[in-house]
Every structure is written in C-alpha cells, then in structure tokens.
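User: structure tokens for this one?
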Amino acid sequence: MKETRITFRSGELSLEGILTIPEGMEPSPAVIVCHPHPLYGGSMDNNVVNALCKALTQTSLVSLKFNFRGVGRSEGNFGQGIGTQEDVDAAISFISTVREADSNRIGLVGYSAGAGFALPAAFRNTQIKALAAVSPPVSMFDFEFLKDCLKPKLLISGSKDVFTSTSQFLEFCQNLPQPKEYHSIEGADHFWWGYESDLAAKTADFLCRVLK
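Assistant:
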C-alpha cells in the first residue's frame, strides 16, 4: 500500500487530499470518499472517512479522500452547494489521471452532508459508475434525483440516526430504482462510533462487486 499526500486544482483553488494505492495489479478501480459538513467539523480526517478508505484499500481499490475548499489546507472558503460540487468534479478529473486507477471504473462515497454535496455531481458525471451514501440526511438535502439514477447505488444508515429516522430512510430507499442496496444498521447512530468496521466492510464489498 502506498499513501501519498496530493494536491489538485478546482478552478483557481488548490485542494489537498490523500491518495492510497493498494499493492497488486493495476490499474485498479478507484473510489472517491467525501467528508461530512465542514461547518460542523467535517474533514477528510473523519473517523468514517478513514475507515472507508482503509477498507477500500484492503479490497484492492484505489481510494482518494480530500478536503473541500476552505477545509484544512484546501484553499478558498467553504462553498455550500455549487462550490463543493465543483470540487467533486475536480476530484473525478484528478483520479482519472492517476496511472494506477482505472478511469473506466470509478465510484464515489459521500458521508452525511458529503452525500448531499457530492452525489448530485456524481449522478451527472458519466465517469462515476457507482454511488454510495452513508447516513444520507434525506430531510435536510434534496436526494430526489436518485429516483432517476440507474447507476448501482448503496445507501446505509444507522437505526439511531437522529437526522433521518429508520422509517424515513427505508421508505426513501424502497422508492429508488434498481440496481440498489440499502441497509439500516441496528444500534449505530449518525456518527458511527464503534460501528465503523461494519459500515466500511459493507461499503467496500458493494463497491468491489459493482466496479470489478
């Protein structure tokens, strides 16, 4: 495994990230992981983001986590909505240039507000072949576009999530088109402390299957 701190451009801004390349054959499928809300402490060093990247690498997938504009050493100010989607598009463009990553097999995971910010851009971008939403706050962001999404998609939420009730989560998922998978993890809340491994394993398994 090779972990490298990188920078890439999003318009006039420089964003920081960490690219992790697994050992073995290349090019490999690649997955971009998007962190939760910057205004509430979200960054690429989040516990869920770290667990996801570790699990992805263990299943021989390239992973890229990065800080949205205005977070950490990423330049600029937090760009609610439009700016963050530009950052997602820039991350997709960057990962497409990585020699060890297969540009025809790219997935994206968004956690919490990261799903709200990133999934609309990933839905529109033809290079993204699969989507995963961890703890999507369906009452706070507009996820209706997923009802038109025919890409493989995974949605996971905890049964004790205070932002999205289990009934609301399951009803939303049931109304999405195939192909889809969804899980409500008993006992987990929105922050996943103590449940990171289970969450990450399910997400990595899904992405490994649909991208390989």
